[in-house]
């Protein structure tokens, strides 16, 4: 009986130690800039669907339902010629019919160089574009960010016509 009790105690201690290690999560903070290039000879974001049956005057409502596919460069500074660290690949859709211009973002941020080379994280959420700071959820990841969750804060750095540079501050738990 004493042997069985000691054995159960040993199993309980091992399980407790394992669970404690499993609960420790790494926090990673990343900053980068995304270049959303809609115009020019080599756009990185292209509208693939739009509505054809709109007859009103509201320019926001006119874009409702439009879908844009993107493969945007990610750089370390706002300068497009700074070090390329990855690509933002996915789509965004115009999701507002009212006064606020908002997008539904479904993107994967894929890192192609640096310490996170080969790793990705994905964002799925609402982006009210005209807000100074927009918070969107991180819903998963691969590589160094496997099973990641967290959030990203997006701030428009610059806008020229429809081309934009957006700064991202990302906090990941993984």
From TrEMBL:
<dbReference type="GO" id="GO:0048046">
    <property type="term" value="C:apoplast"/>
</dbReference>
<keyword id="KW-0052">Apoplast</keyword>
<comment type="function">
    <text>Dirigent proteins impart stereoselectivity on the phenoxy radical-coupling reaction, yielding optically active lignans from two molecules of coniferyl alcohol in the biosynthesis of lignans, flavonolignans, and alkaloids and thus plays a central role in plant secondary metabolism.</text>
</comment>
<feature type="signal peptide">
    <location>
        <begin position="1"/>
        <end position="16"/>
    </location>
</feature>
<comment type="similarity">
    <text>Belongs to the plant dirigent protein family.</text>
</comment>
<protein>
    <recommendedName>
        <fullName>Dirigent protein</fullName>
    </recommendedName>
</protein>
<comment type="subunit">
    <text>Homodimer.</text>
</comment>
<dbReference type="Pfam" id="PF03018">
    <property type="entry name" value="Dirigent"/>
</dbReference>
<keyword id="KW-0732">Signal</keyword>
<dbReference type="InterPro" id="IPR004265">
    <property type="entry name" value="Dirigent"/>
</dbReference>
<keyword id="KW-0964">Secreted</keyword>
<dbReference type="InterPro" id="IPR044859">
    <property type="entry name" value="Allene_oxi_cyc_Dirigent"/>
</dbReference>
<dbReference type="GO" id="GO:0009699">
    <property type="term" value="P:phenylpropanoid biosynthetic process"/>
</dbReference>
């Amino acid at each position: 009986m004493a042997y069985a009790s000691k054995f159960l105690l040993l199993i309980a201690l091992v399980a407790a130690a394992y669970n404690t290690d499993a609960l420790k999560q790494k926090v990673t903070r990343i900053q980068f800039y995304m270049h959303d290039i809609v115009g020019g000879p080599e756009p990185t974001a292209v509208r693939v669907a739009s509505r054809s049956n709109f007859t009103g005057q509201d320019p926001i409502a006119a874009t409702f339902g439009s879908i844009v596919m993107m493969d945007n460069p990610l750089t370390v500074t706002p300068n497009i010629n700074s070090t390329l660290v990855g690509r933002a690949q996915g789509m965004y859709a115009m999701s507002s019919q009212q006064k606020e211009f908002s997008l539904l973002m479904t993107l994967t941020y894929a890192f192609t160089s640096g310490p996170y080379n080969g790793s990705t994280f994905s964002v799925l959420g609402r982006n009210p574009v005209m807000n100074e700071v927009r918070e969107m959820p991180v819903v998963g990841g691969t590589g160094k960010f496997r099973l990641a969750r967290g959030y990203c804060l997006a701030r428009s750095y610059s806008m020229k016509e429809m081309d934009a540079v957006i700064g991202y501050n990302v906090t990941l738990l993984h």
